[in-house]
Amino acid sequence: MLGSEFFKQLTNNSRLHWGFVIVIIAIIAYWFIIEKTSFGYSLRATGFNKEGARYAGIRVNKSIILSIMISGFLAGLAGAIVVQGTFGYGRVMVAMDNYGFDGIAVALVGGCNAIGIMLAGMLFGLLKVAQPLLQTYGVPKEIGDIISSSIVFFVALQYAIQLVILKLKARKPKKKDPSLAMQGGDSK
């Protein structure tokens, strides 16, 4: 349904379709709303610190409900694009393998940033699409999954290391300046 002769000619008969353009438009719209509007600021503030947002006068419950609605809309849009663009019909529950888990991994690798998520999604999509091609060269298709899993592991490890460093810095006592102590002062 979303297929296009233009994209087939452009990409040597690949399955690329108008859904790609819809996704790019959705990402740009999402980025603009979240980064450039007061509505997006209220959503980000609520996500970062619910109590701080409440003290700033933001209606936190409204922001939470709206963010869930936006997430549901984007998930539904993605599902519709996959079904109508790739398969062309609606009964494909067997073919929908791990899209939810891949979405979480893409968000983690993309750093929950619209542009980062777009790039991470393209990377993970490339790895998934390349699996059959790798098999023609005798490479097991699981290599793509191993690469994807390794990327997620190392990104998560980076976040874990940053968290440990922050906790260690918080526990570390501040050193006093000996020159101030000799003068009768105390460095605080």
Describe this structure as you would to a colleague.
The chain is built from nine helices and no strands. Helix 6 crosses helix 7 (114-136) and helix 6 crosses helix 8. It has 188 residues and is mostly helical. The protein has helices at 5-10, 19-36, 38-48, 50-55, 60-87, 99-109, 114-136, 142-171, 178-182. The chain has two domains: 1-94, no CATH class; 97-174, no CATH class. The model has no long low-confidence stretch (mean pLDDT 82).
Keywords, please?
about 190 residues; about 75% helix; single chain; mainly alpha
Fold blueprint:
Layout: H1 5-10, H2 19-36, H3 38-48, H4 50-55, H5 60-87, H6 99-109, H7 114-136, H8 142-171, H9 178-182
Catalogue the unreliable spans. none
The rounded Rg comes to: 23 Å
In whole angstroms, the N-to-C terminal distance is 67 Å
- Amount of helix: over 70%
Order of helices and strands: HHHHHHHHH
- How many structural units, i.e. domains? 2
Tell me the β content. under 5%
Q: How many helices in DSSP terms?
A: 9
What can be said about the biggest beta sheet? none
The count of β-strands is 0
Morphology call: flat
Briefly note the structural class of the backbone.
mainly alpha
Mean pLDDT: 82
What is shown here, in short?
The chain is mostly helical.
